[in-house]
């Protein structure tokens, strides 16, 4: 089968592929993705709980896989510490930190201090969207840790998707996993994880835009709290 391409794939092709993969588990989806795309696929990882699960699964399928982290330069120290632990645990994985074109100081000079408060969409565009655009332009496809239960905006995601935002093919192996299953896997395999998860931070982004979440609330309620923003734009 010819390699899938955003420009040429049809709705029927995507439907057929997802029907064929419907009863597969996450590691089977990854095996399909790497066998189909080879080196032409990258995992864009935020190093959240889902990311840790996917990194471990990916290491079992392709020990030399490329993983990119969007380093906004505004992340928690705990996140950077976790990345170093993951690098040590999986030394053959190619883990890259992708920085924005502007430093935080340069952004402050051009757009004013604390742009994430005055215009969070613009801040995300500069520090996340543009860097990911640049990275994904090198590949035909990318892997994401989206799960259907995370939010209404993610409820209909498929294993294999046409990504109109980045003009790419997006593969999401964990769509059927629950939050409890994510943590069962982490605990069972004794994987490193962000210590902030133990402090009521289920979803962890930049330090300036992430708050802890009260028990029983949506796992993404702490992201861009006190604003109407629910996504950074990567998955819209």
Architecture overview:
With 236 residues, the protein is of the alpha/beta class. The chain has one domain (11-194): HUPs (Rossmann fold, 3-Layer(aba) Sandwich), CATH 3.40.50. It contains eight helices and six strands, in the order ααβαβαβαααβββα. It has helices at 11-21, 26-37, 49-61, 77-89, 104-111, 115-118, 120-136, 179-188; strands spanning 41-44, 66-70, 94-98, 141-143, 160-163, 168-171. It has a six-stranded mixed sheet, with helices on both faces. The longest helix is centred in the middle third of the chain and has 17 residues, at 120-136. It catalyses: [thioredoxin]-disulfide + sulfite + AMP + 2 H(+) = adenosine 5'-phosphosulfate + [thioredoxin]-dithiol. Keywords: Cytoplasm, Iron, Iron-sulfur, Metal-binding, Oxidoreductase. It holds the Pfam family PAPS_reduct. Its main location: cytoplasm. One of its GO terms (molecular function) is 4 iron, 4 sulfur cluster binding.
Number of DSSP helical runs: 8
Query: The biggest beta sheet, please?
Result: 6 strands, mixed
Q: How many discrete domains? A: 1
Low-confidence runs: 229-233
Name the descriptors:
236 residues; adenylyl-sulfate reductase (thioredoxin) activity; 11% strand; 37% helix; 8 helices
Short characterization:
This protein is α/β, with parallel strands linked by helices and 236 residues long. It has helices spanning 11-21, 26-37, 49-61, 77-89, 104-111, 115-118, 120-136, 179-188; strands spanning 41-44, 66-70, 94-98, 141-143, 160-163, 168-171. The relative contact order is 0.17.
